[in-house]
């Protein structure tokens, strides 16, 4: 009996010790950092049809972070609703998947410094006659499953009818087929989708009002302080060296579809409002 | 994995979502079933008829539908078919829960094609002499079917049809990909908002299993009450 | 339309390979075949457990089979995706997750097919084998299962076709199989949804109907 108890204690201690083994140490040991990305969200992360590789702003950032840590990056595509579970299960080491830093999510995962600031906006069909958010009451709005869009919209317009799909492009198809009056997503995706529409642009309008402000950050597993320190340090270095700014303009700047004239944030903080 | 707290998903707003999803799943089951069974009977009779064109139509219907996954059917009926409709019809569809209508169409056709095959083999297993005797007595094809063959085929056909009903119930979960707010869709929504994966999926699995159990019990009961008689 | 075919044709057929993981039609076929191959031993083990003389083996397995068959496959996929790593302690990608979910799900169905196949081998075979001195395991391995497999061939072909169709559920967990890619292409092209989804349906039709026909040609009567 005593022997059993001692064996159990020993196992427990061993389990606890291995459980607290450092993620950063593991990654350096493996030589590889797995980045979870959406690959369906241009230009944050998407598949380039010519080269059939996954590219984008967050892909560049993640590769650079891996380089600074001293390992190579592996990019893995994951579904929107699976982001947090994938990170928690250890399928991916880091989330670079248009993940909004919310207080609610802080209970289950940690966040790096904010890497992008965007807002969630609504794109409406011009023939719906909707010019402001309250007019969405009782109307049908589409978006992607597994994100913050639905909850944020309901806070502003409680009686809205939301229908969600597995990917954002799928939801956009639904809007373009007139199945709904509006489509809610973060403004980067909206502006990109709008720009890609070409002549069909005249049928759609992006409402200026923000449904919410979204600080986008990389997702990290909880209780891995060394990992967070390393990722944040890498991001600060990228900001200081100007590489972060360079990538912003590469994917969002004047030469691109989105044409953001300036960058109105710096990668420096992980504080978010309540 | 941490503490499991089922009360989170069984109370308040989350419970409302799960219950409404469950109810919609049941409605999808009922509506699709009611459309599928008559359609299947017609297709089965087509495949058994002596008219070549009808036989061909039946074969194309069954093989064309069965060899394509239900997910692809759902995508087709929701994202492709409405584009072929004239605009007034399309707008009417979109104003009246297109997600539910298209899901029912896809489910009814898919189940119907499998049921048609079960009905066809059931009818064929009724001894040929029965049909010959009926025709000899002066019944036409349809009358012979209605009065002599189908009543006998009934006992043989019902067990596989109940099995198809079970499949239909499980298949309603695929409607989530076209935005139909049935149980699977609501479970994904609850999981996103509560971060409680095990609890939400656990409750939903239990809900699916309960109805599956009822359907299986009906099958067992039927076979006990109406055993197939050898003639 | 033909330019869409040229631009996206390769992506549809093999996904991102070699610039990324294998996808598209090639992945669908690979996943379907692997899942069926994996489901066979699962099905055989479960079938043997179901006809076993020991209640402690028979009852839990029968219960498990009923649970798996009463649950939608999509639910099984979600369980495998979110909770399998916690159980096995190993990290799994979408392909492995679908593979395991399909192997378990089809294994539970194959258990019935295998059980019927085994019980369809005449009792005389088993008796003759035992009287010749073969033990339980050898009888199964050398005499009963080979004959049972021949009986089961039509059902196995059906199950392969079913498994190929089931791979489409990988769409929902982001696996780049052929339905996912078709949807991505559709969201880029926008104006040809009927053509794209009809092409997707036709791809599956040719694959599945063709397979059943091929089996018939090779002498397997379904």
Structure description:
With 274 residues, chain A is α/β, with parallel strands linked by helices. Chain A folds into 2 domains: 23-117 and 214-252, 3-Layer(aba) Sandwich (D-Maltodextrin-Binding Protein, domain 2); 119-212, 3-Layer(aba) Sandwich (D-Maltodextrin-Binding Protein, domain 2), CATH 3.40.190. Helix content of chain A is 36%, strand content 24%. In chain A, the strands form 3 sheets. In chain A, strands 7, 8, 9, 10, 11 and 12 form a 6-stranded mixed beta sheet that branches. A 3-stranded parallel beta sheet of chain A has the order 5-1-6, sandwiched between helices. Chain A has a 3-stranded antiparallel beta sheet with strand order 2-3-4. In chain A, helix 5 links the parallel strand 8 and strand 9. Chain B is mainly alpha-helical. Chain B has one domain: MetI-like (MetI-like fold, Orthogonal Bundle). Chain B is flat, with a radius of gyration of 21 Å. The model of chain B has no long low-confidence stretch (mean pLDDT 90). The model of chain C has no long low-confidence stretch (mean pLDDT 87). Chain C is 79% helix and 0% strand. Chain C has one domain (2-217): MetI-like fold, CATH 1.10.3720. Chain C starts with a helix and ends in a 5-residue tail after the last helix. Chain C is mainly α. In chain C, helix 3 packs across helix 5 (94-120). The chains are: A alpha/beta (274), B mainly alpha (231), C mainly alpha (222). Chains in contact: A-B, A-C, B-C.
List keywords for this structure.
heterotrimer; A: 274 residues; alpha/beta; D-Maltodextrin-Binding Protein, domain 2; 2 domains; six-stranded mixed β-sheet; three-stranded parallel β-sheet; 9 helices; globular; B: 231 residues; mainly alpha; MetI-like fold
Structural class of chain A: alpha/beta
| Domains of chain A (count) | 2
Mean pLDDT of chain C: 87
CATH architecture of the largest domain in chain A: 3-Layer(aba) Sandwich
What is the averaged pLDDT score of chain A?
87
Please name the CATH topology of the largest domain in chain A.
D-Maltodextrin-Binding Protein, domain 2
Number of structurally distinct domains of chain C: 1
Helix content of chain C: over 70%
CATH superfamily of the largest domain in chain A: Periplasmic binding protein-like II
Write the layout of secondary structure elements.
The complex is a heterotrimer of chains A (274), B (231) and C (222).
Chain A: H1 2-19, H2 23-30, E1 32-37, E2 40-41, E3 45-48, E4 53-55, H3 57-69, E5 72-77, H4 83-89, E6 94-95, E7 110-125, E8 140-144, H5 149-156, E9 161-165, H6 168-176, E10 182-186, H7 187-196, E11 204-206, E12 212-220, H8 225-241, H9 243-252
Parallel strand pairs in A: 1-5, 1-6, 8-9, 8-10
Antiparallel strand pairs in A: 2-3, 3-4, 7-10, 7-11, 7-12
Chain B: H1 7-10, H2 12-48, H3 52-66, H4 70-84, H5 87-95, H6 98-124, H7 128-136, H8 141-171, H9 183-194, H10 197-225
Helix pairs in contact in B: 2-3, 2-6, 2-9, 3-6, 4-6, 6-8, 7-8, 8-10, 9-10
Chain C: H1 2-14, H2 24-50, H3 55-70, H4 73-88, H5 94-120, H6 123-131, H7 136-166, H8 178-189, H9 193-217
């Amino acid at each position: 009996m005593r022997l059993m108890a001692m064996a159990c204690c020993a196992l427990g201690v061993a389990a606890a010790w291995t459980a607290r083994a450092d993620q950063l140490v593991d990654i350096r040991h493996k030589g590889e950092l797995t980045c979870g990305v959406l690959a369906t969200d241009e230009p944050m992360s998407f598949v380039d049809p010519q080269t059939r590789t996954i590219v984008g702003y967050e892909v560049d950032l993640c590769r650079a972070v891996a380089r600074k840590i001293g390992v190579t990056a592996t990019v893995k595509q994951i579904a929107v609703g699976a982001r947090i579970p994938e990170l928690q299960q250890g399928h991916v080491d880091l989330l670079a998947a248009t993940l909004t830093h919310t207080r609610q999510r802080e209970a289950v995962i940690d966040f790096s410094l904010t890497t992008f600031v965007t807002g969630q906006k609504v794109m409406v069909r011009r023939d719906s006659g909707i010019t402001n958010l309250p007019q969405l009451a009782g109307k049908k709005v589409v978006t992607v499953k597994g994100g913050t869009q639905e909850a944020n919209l309901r806070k502003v317009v409680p009686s809205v009818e939301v229908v969600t799909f597995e990917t954002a492009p799928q939801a956009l198809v639904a809007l373009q087929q007139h199945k709904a009056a509006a489509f809610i997503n973060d403004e980067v995706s909206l502006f990109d989708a709008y720009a890609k529409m070409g002549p069909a642009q005249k049928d759609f309008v992006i409402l200026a009002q923000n449904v919410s402000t979204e600080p986008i950050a990389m997702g990290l597993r909880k209780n891995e302080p060394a990992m967070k320190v390393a990722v944040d340090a890498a991001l600060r270095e990228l900001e200081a060296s100007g590489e972060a700014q360079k990538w912003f303009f590469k994917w969002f700047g004047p030469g691109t579809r989105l044409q953001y004239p300036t960058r109105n944030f710096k990668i420096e903080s992980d504080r978010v409002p309540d | 994995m941490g503490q499991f707290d089922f009360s989170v998903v069984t109370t308040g707003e989350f419970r409302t979502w799960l219950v409404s999803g469950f109810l919609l799943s049941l409605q999808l089951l009922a509506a699709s079933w009611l459309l599928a069974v008559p359609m299947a009977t017609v297709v089965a009779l087509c495949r058994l008829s002596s008219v070549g064109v009808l036989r061909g139509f039946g074969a194309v219907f069954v093989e064309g539908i069965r060899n394509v996954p239900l997910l692809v059917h759902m995508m087709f009926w929701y994202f492709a078919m409405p584009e072929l409709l004239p605009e007034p019809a399309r707008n009417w569809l979109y104003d009246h829960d297109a997600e539910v209508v298209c899901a029912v169409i896809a489910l009814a056709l898919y189940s119907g094609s499998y049921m048609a095959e079960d009905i066809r083999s059931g009818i064929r297993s009724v001894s040929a002499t029965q049909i010959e005797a009926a025709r000899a007595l002066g019944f036409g094809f349809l009358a012979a079917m209605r009065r002599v063959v189908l009543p006998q085929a009934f006992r043989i056909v019902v067990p596989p049809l109940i099995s198809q009903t079970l499949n239909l119930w499980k298949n309603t979960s695929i409607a989530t990909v076209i935005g139909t707010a049935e149980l699977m869709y609501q479970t994904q929504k609850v999981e996103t908002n509560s971060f409680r994966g095990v609890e939400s999926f656990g409750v939903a699995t239990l809900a699916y299993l309960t109805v599956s159990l009822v359907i299986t019990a009906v099958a067992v009961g039927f076979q006990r009450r109406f055993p197939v008689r050898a003639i | 339309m033909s330019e869409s075919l040229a631009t996206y044709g390769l992506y549809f057929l093999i996904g991102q390979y070699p610039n990324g993981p294998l996808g598209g039609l090639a992945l669908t076929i690979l996943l379907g075949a692997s899942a069926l191959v994996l489901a066979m031993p699962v099905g055989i083990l479960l079938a043997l457990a179901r006809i076993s003389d020991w209640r402690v083996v028979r009852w839990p397995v029968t219960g498990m089979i009923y649970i798996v068959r009463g649950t939608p496959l999509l639910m099984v996929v979600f369980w495998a995706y979110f909770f399998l790593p916690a159980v096995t302690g190993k990290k799994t990608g979408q392909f492995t997750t679908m593979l395991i979910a399909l192997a378990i799900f089809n294994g539970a169905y194959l258990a019935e097919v295998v059980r019927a196949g085994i019980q369809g081998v005449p009792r005389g075979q088993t008796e003759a084998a035992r009287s010749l001195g073969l033990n339980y395991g050898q009888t199964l391995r050398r005499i009963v299962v080979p004959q049972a497999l021949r009986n089961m061939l039509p059902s196995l072909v059906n199950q392969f076709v079913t498994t190929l169709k089931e791979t489409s559920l990988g769409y929902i967990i982001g696996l780049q199989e052929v339905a996912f890619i078709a949807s991505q292409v559709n969201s880029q092209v926008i104006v040809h949804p009927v053509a794209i989804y009809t092409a997707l349906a036709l791809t599956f039709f040719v694959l599945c109907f063709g397979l059943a026909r091929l089996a018939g040609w090779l002498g397997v009567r379904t």
